[in-house]
Amino acid sequence: MIQPQQNPAAKTQLRLSVLAKQALPWAVPSLLLIVWQWASSAGILPSRFLPSPSAVMRSFVELSASGELWMHVRVSTLRALSGFVVGGGMGLLLGLLTASMHWAEILLDTTIQMVRNIPPLALIPLVILWFGIDESAKLFLVSLGVFFPVYINTFHGIRSVDRGLLEMGRTYGLSGWPLYREIILPGALPSILVGVRFSLGLMWVILIVAETMSARSGIGYMTMNAREFMQTDVMVVGILLYAILGKLADLLAKGLERYWLRWNPAYRIAR
Amino acid sequence: MPTAYSSRENATAEHRCSRGVSVAIKSVSIAFGGRTVLENFDIEISAGEFVAIVGRSGCGKSTLLRSVVGLETPQSGTIIVGNVGDGIAKNNGKPDVRVMFQDSRLLPWRRILPNVMLGLGPALIPQAQKVLAQVGLAERASDWPATLSGGQRQRVALARALVHDPNLLLLDEPLGSLDALTRIEMQQLIEDIWRSRGFTAMLVTHDVAEAIALADRVTLIEGGCVALDEVVNIPRPRTRGSARFAALEERILGRVLQRRPMVEE
Q1: Which helix or strand (DSSP H or E) is residue B160 part of?
Q2: Which of B58, B55, B35, B47 has its CA nearest to residue B83?
Q3: What gap in Å lies between CA A239 and CA A78, rounded to an integer?
Q4: Where are the domains positioned within chain A?
Q5: Is residue B242 a part of any domain in this protein?
């Protein structure tokens, strides 16, 4: 008798376990969706309280087909990114300055640390007074919010660059910009990217609040507008959009880390 | 009792051809926060000579090396690297001094070849590749430093120093963290390269055998001064097992440990 080969069976089992591993994280969300849909259809969950998943889906398809959804998404994304570029850019520059120049640290750091403790959202009444409810108000709030994580992590990153490498660089005649390019900036980059990742999350949070308080377009406006007409499905679409956009921003930050820090075994992609 | 020698002619005669520079350290004093590390320290090293500086931890041997390259500033005294007639016309007459540290200090975010090229233009890529081949790592040029072993990293650090074709190479316990076998391999590599290029070398180490294997002269620092200055008159290549080697090692080690020379035991 020929012994049946063990290999194919083991292979199938292995494939199954890989599949299970990939599917497992989605088990709980799927279950929740099923329960949610069931509760809505059974009439336990009234639609004015929370719409059924299928209603949310329908409303998503309708909104995207009409182009209204993409208009709002575009406006919000543009606001978020321009705020991120302005605030993050300033955080990076000021962080570089205060970490590199002793006089700049003495002059500015105390002020920055004080302002840091004011939640940007606490400024909303003042901001509305200053800028009204147009674009500059949102740009200001988002920029202010993302400034601090980038600033603090840039400062910390530069201060914690390996002294030994700096010393080595100096014995190789590096100073000024070459020293920054070769040693200081790459050495500070892991820390700077932590700040960027933090900022990208904060960017959406601040924008959501700013848009729900005062806006004529954007996802926050769409959600608040839907509330006036009791369109719970549109509200849920808006909320889910923020979740998706937040996740996309985080993926972007992770991608940057993987690319820029590929020299670091801790960030290298497995396999 | 060991005798202190002042003549170095015989030790370095064979390397005179080359690009080494002399080093004159005169009455140098260095203190950190009130604690004197070096006091009125004098040492003269002739061009092309290989000097090993030994001593206990904290005796100031690393500080001495670091002050030669300007990483420490002495409170008093002078350090002169290079003399008229040392053949350093290149580089505007300024001698090229490079350091190899105990840790390789490679930039982890640069691949091996760019690490070797640090501070140099792309015109020197062929030169860098040549030196990398000389230390036996030509095929690792595009790898990240994190993928190399400790010994390989030190070889890259050596290559990085050698691309500049230094007049003076300072070795600050460069093999201290390597395993015994890799150490011997690296010692051979350093000796070979020094013999073929003829730069002046100052090696700080606490391994007396390493000092004797490599150096023309072994200097012991103790209490901030030169306690022993011993010419190593063993022909190269030196074999560690030889009686002269062992006798010299025993003598220097005995002096480091403050033992009386052993007569019998």
Answers
A1: helix B150-162
A2: B47
A3: 18
A4: 65-263
A5: yes
Is the separation of the CB atoms in B184 and B237 below 8 Å? no
Is residue A195 within 8 A of residue A153, CB to CB? The reply is: yes
Mean pLDDT of B59-84: 88
Which structural domain range is residue B85 located in?
Answer: 9-96+165-256
Number of domains in chain B: 1
User: Is B108 within a domain?
Assistant: no
B94 touches chain A (CB under 8 A): no
Residues of A in Cβ contact (< 8 Å) with B98 = 171-172
B168 contacts in A (CB within 8 Å)? none
What single DSSP character describes residue A48? T
Nearest residue on chain A to B143, judged by CA atoms?
A: A263
Contact assignment for A164 to B105 by CB distance below 8 Å: yes
Q: Is residue B103 one of the residues assigned to a domain?
A: no
| pLDDT digit string, tens, across residues B200-221 | 999 999 899 999 999 999 999 9
Which H helix or E strand runs over B25?
strand B23-32
Comparing A15 with A226, which gets the higher pLDDT?
A226
Residue pair A263/B142 in contact (Cβ under 8 Å)? The answer is no
If you average pLDDT over residues B179-196, what whole number do you get?
Answer: 92
Class for domain A65-263, per CATH?
A: mainly alpha
Q: Which residues pair with A25 in a beta bridge?
A: none
d(CA B12, CA B60): 26
- Rounded CA gap, B184 and B194, in Å? 15
**CA distance linking residue A9 with residue B146, whole number of Å:** 39
Does residue B225 or residue B83 have the better pLDDT? B225
Measuring CA to CA, which residue among A203, A201, A212 is closest to residue A238? A212
Cβ neighbors of B33 (< 8 A, separation 6 or more) are: none
Q: CB contacts < 8 Å between A and B, how many?
A: 49
In tens, the pLDDT along A162-199 reads 999 999 999 998 989 999 999 999 999 999 999 999 99
CATH number at residue B81: 3.40.50.300
Give the alpha-carbon dihedral of A212, A215, A221, A226, to 10 degrees: 90
Q: How far is CA B265 from CA B82, B244, B259, B262, in A?
A: 47, 19, 13, 7
Backbone φ and ψ for A152, nearest 5 degrees, come out as: -65, -40
Confidence of residue A89 (pLDDT cuts 50, 70, 90): very high
Residue B80 forms contact with A (CB below 8 Å): no
CA dist B137 → B108, B116, B148, B153, B252 (Å): 17, 11, 10, 10, 35
**Chain A 171-230, CB below 8 Å of chain B: which residues?**
171-174, 178, 182-183, 186-187, 189
CB proximity list for B217: less than 8 A, separation 6 or greater = B5, B8, B11, B49, B50, B51, B52, B229, B230, B231, B232
Residue B44 near chain A (CB below 8 Å): no
CA distances from A60 to A46, A180, A196, A204, B22 (A): 19, 48, 31, 20, 80
Q: What is the mean pLDDT of residues A41-54?
A: 88
- In this predicted structure, the answer to whether residue A271 has a pLDDT above a threshold of 70 is no
* ipTM exceeds 0.85: no
